[in-house]
Design brief:
InterPro entries: Nuclease_put_TT1808, Restrct_endonuc-II-like, Uma2
Keywords: Endonuclease, Hydrolase, Nuclease
Radius of gyration: 15 Å
Number of strands: 12
Shape: globular
Largest sheet: 6 strands, mixed
CATH topology: tt1808, chain A
Organism: Streptomyces eurythermus
GO molecular function, one term: endonuclease activity
CATH superfamily: tt1808, chain A
Protein name: Uma2 family endonuclease
């Protein structure tokens, strides 16, 4: 499908998600700023990675591609997809065209994949949330803790606190 349709594809717990719109400049700027902020406070053996690598949980049949993942350099040395159990945090910048993918689907899937920290930045509203503390539920693993934030506040992702002041917002569409 990727050869004939534009956008990105991911395999979720519920099926295939297609986001037909490629990330825009403000999305990419947010990703770059978050990477830079994180790498200033993280130890050298870790990377805020925003490359083309997918995370794949074969037992759960989930393949996701976070905007940024915090991972040890050595865990990138793999032939195939990245093992989600090596990812310390996943970060998403909400897509204007498919916000439920980040706010609903990935909250569910990242807990199922065992990602200990999931941070969502929403340039539509200038808000976000950090999800932590995976716990079992009858419906499967879920995040127990959600900490909301507003752009302009400092936010803690895992053990690193970064600023959100100056992150861009999406412009209004007419």
């Amino acid at each position: 499908m990727g050869d004939t349709l534009s956008g990105t594809f991911e395999i979720t717990w519920e099926g295939i998600v297609h986001d037909p719109v490629s990330p825009n400049g403000r999305h990419e700027l947010t990703r770059a700023l978050l990477r830079r902020h994180l790498e200033k406070v993280m130890p050298d053996e870790l990377l805020a990675h925003s490359g083309t690598s997918d995370m794949e949980d074969e037992p759960e049949a989930i393949l996701r591609h976070p905007d940024v993942m915090v991972i040890a350099w050595e865990d990138l040395d793999t032939e195939g997809s990245i093992d989600p159990r090596t990812v310390l945090a996943a970060i998403e910048i909400v897509s204007r065209s498919n916000p439920d993918n980040d706010w609903v689907g990935k909250v569910r899937d990242y807990a199922l994949m065992g990602i200990p920290v999931y941070a969502v930045f929403d340039p539509r509203t200038g808000t976000g949330a950090v999800f932590t503390d995976i716990h079992p539920t009858p419906a499967g693993p879920r995040y127990a803790t959600r900490k909301d934030f507003v752009y302009g506040e400092n936010v803690t992702i895992a053990e690193w606190t970064i600023p959100t002041q100056g992150l861009p917002l999406y412009g209004r569409t007419t």
